[in-house]
Amino acid sequence: MWACRDDGQILDALRAGQLGLFVAVDHFADEVGADVRAFEEERAAFVSHLREPRPATG
Fold this sequence. Notes:
By secondary structure, the chain is mostly helical. The chain contains 2 helices and no strands.
């Protein structure tokens, strides 16, 4: 793991390909986070619909 303290170190990391991995992982984590939020919203709407009172049939 690298900690870059100046522009030169950042450029060195880019040349070595190390930073590209972290950018890719960060992008993937953002996508997963968005998918999880969408799933939770859909689940909440589904559960809310199940809990709605229904008219008696008979």
